[in-house]
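Hi there. Long-time user, first ticket. I'm pasting a complex I've been working with (about 509 residues overall). I'd like to know whether the download I got is complete or cut off, because the file seemed smaller than I expected. Thanks.
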Amino acid sequence: MSLAALEDVTLRRNGEAVLDAVSLSVDAGEIVTLVGPNGSGKTTLVRTLLGAVPPDSGRVTRRPGLRVGYVPQRLSIDPTLPMTVGRFLRLPNRHPWDAIHTALEDAGLPDVADRPLAALSGGQLQRALLARALIGDPELLILDEPTAGLDQPGAAAFYRRIETLRDSRGCAVLLVSHDLHVVMAASDRVICLNGHVCCEGTPAVVASAPAYRALFGDGTGGALALYRHEHGGHRHEHPHPHHHETANG
Amino acid sequence: MDDFLLRAALAGTGLILATAPLGCFVVWRRMAYFGDATGHAAILGVAIAVVLSLPLIVGVLATTVVFGALLFALTREGTSADTVLGVLSHALLAIGLVGVALAPGPRIDLEGLLFGDILAVRQMDVWLIWAGGAAVAAIIAARWNALLTATLGDDLARAGGIDPARDTALLTGLLALTVALALKMVGALLISALLIIPAAAARPFARSPEGMVALTAVLGLTSVLGGLGLSFVIDSPAGPSIIVAAAAMYAAARVAQAAR
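Hi, the file is complete. Here it is re-exported in full:
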């Protein structure tokens, strides 16, 4: 059974379909990446999956009692709110400090619990948000454009960290991104969204799918080359089931 | 010390119970315009209370709560909340002033309405303000962690099992109540100043949200007592004097921050 799934979900806003008959599922332990141009409904899809937005039609299912860790696109914290990183991680539930320090270490941000949130750099803030999502020991980690303000090496390091976390904690990951170069290397499965699901499959299959190329152009051939060059054979290190290996664009 | 001054000092102290925690949330959540608009709605509430021969506090509270709910509904979509609030805030002020001018019976003291009137603070008002202030403080304390989480962002709140709209609605309601309580002390035009300025002055010295509320309370209380003292000595209007005292502390805080 999948952890969370959308079945034929349609969602309209002002009469226009933001999501059009979208189906997708995330299984235990896999990394699924959602790519698509701006305004393609990626964030809406995530919010629907989280249960924050009810769909107009279709079904949203989450395994009962599923523990979800959510990393939002950005934190719109007002600088007038004084708060240490440790306190930020203990809201709204006062988790024990052991769990806080473990989460911070796993997120690659040790020894900052006493520092004010406002003093963190963009990359550190992103890791603080990741730590926050890890505290409840999630079975599914959802990240919405987690590397939006980071440079490419920073983004690549962040995604490597996500992959390591998946391996050590065994949690499934749903990534929303347009950093195709760096994301694809870590993904088991890529879903290309533009209101509807354009194509879906392994990174290699999606990158060569006509629907994907129509959306992102031929320039992404370089992404595929990079993927093959740096991570050839990499996926076989993980004994995860890989299905959906068809492009239906 | 004169009785009226003592009553005003007691009422102001009770008011700080509500304005210190609420003012911090107004600053953190950028609700300053919201406070202004609710304050302006209170003027219309006075006119309605006079027309219907209701106690002032009832008319004011009913109006601020209704307009708070209206503002909440209109600004929830979020897109151009700034413009909507700007329009509503001043439209409410104008409608309220027209309503007060047209209300039958003896002329309503407009200056007292706009800038506060400590002579009008009676024993009963002191009890009312203390009860209301304590209620606001208790409700905020009870939902403290949820309110803080909702302040960090809607998505984070939902991920933590908190309905952010509910907490925004709660703060809106508490704001309406506080405005109704504060009307006699500082007047409709300066209520949001009493919410914002002490909190803004406290910010540079606070390391935690709780610390900021505590310091805001100290600065707010100093503003009330200092303003009343100023008003007594130089015979200035009490409401504006309280805000002058608060503004002076804000200036001092910024200078101290720059000097560090």
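A couple of notes from our side: Residues 77-137 of chain A form one domain. Chain A has two domains: 1-67+139-249, 77-137.
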